Each structure stands twice: as structure tokens, then as C-alpha cells.
């Protein structure tokens, strides 16, 4: 099993990152409604267990946790 990176708390927005308001508790307990997710727009390599922002062609966004399962 790969080592999972912990979610980091920031007191400022790191260079190259954006803020995404969290509208629901779909990603709880990692991220809860009313919080802001700090999105590293350069980290595009999905990894098991990590949380990602998906921006759909319609403009809608979703915060999801990637769970991979063997076939």
C-alpha cells in the first residue's frame, strides 16, 4: 500500500494554488461544508485515497476522494 499524504492546514494560499469553497459534507471527514479546500493545480497525478477537485466541462466542480480497487 502506498503512503497517503496528510491534508495540510495553511495560514496563506501557497503560490500556484487556488481556493475552492466546500458546499457539502460529501468529502467529510477530510473536508466539511463551509471550509475552503486549497487546490494545487499542478498536482494532476491521481493517487489512491487522496482528495481531488474535478471541474466538469459544464463548469460544475466536485471534490472527490479517489478509491482504487483491484479487479
Mean pLDDT: 81
Sheet with most strands: 2 strands, antiparallel
Q: Helix share of residues?
A: under 10%
Q: Please tally the β strands and state the result.
A: 4
Structural class: mainly beta
Q: Helix and strand string, N-terminal first?
A: EEEE
Continuous helix count: 0
Which range does the strand content fall in?
25-35%
What characteristic shape results from the CA principal axes?
Answer: globular
Given as residue ranges, the uncertain stretches (5+ residues, pLDDT < 50) are: none
Largest sheet, spatial ordering of strands: 1-2
Radius of gyration: 13 Å
Distance between the termini: 16 Å
Write the layout of secondary structure elements.
Elements (H helix, E strand, L loop, with lengths): L16 E5 L14 E5 L10 E5 L5 E5 L6
Antiparallel strand pairs: 1-2, 3-4
3D architecture notes:
The chain is mainly beta and 71 residues long. 0% of the residues lie in helices and 28% in strands. The protein is built from no helices and four strands. It has strands at residues 17-21, 36-40, 51-55, 61-65. It has a two-stranded antiparallel ribbon with strand order 1-2. A two-stranded antiparallel ribbon has the order 3-4. It is globular. 0% of the residues are buried.
Amino acid at each position: 500500500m502506498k503512503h497517503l499524504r496528510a491534508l495540510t492546514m495553511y495560514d496563506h494560499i501557497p503560490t500556484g494554488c487556488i481556493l475552492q469553497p466546500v458546499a457539502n459534507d460529501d468529502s467529510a471527514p477530510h473536508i466539511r461544508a463551509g471550509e475552503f479546500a486549497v487546490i494545487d493545480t499542478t498536482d494532476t497525478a491521481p493517487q489512491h485515497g487522496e482528495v481531488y477537485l474535478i471541474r466538469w466541462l459544464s463548469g460544475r466542480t466536485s471534490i472527490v476522494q479517489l478509491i482504487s480497487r483491484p479487479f
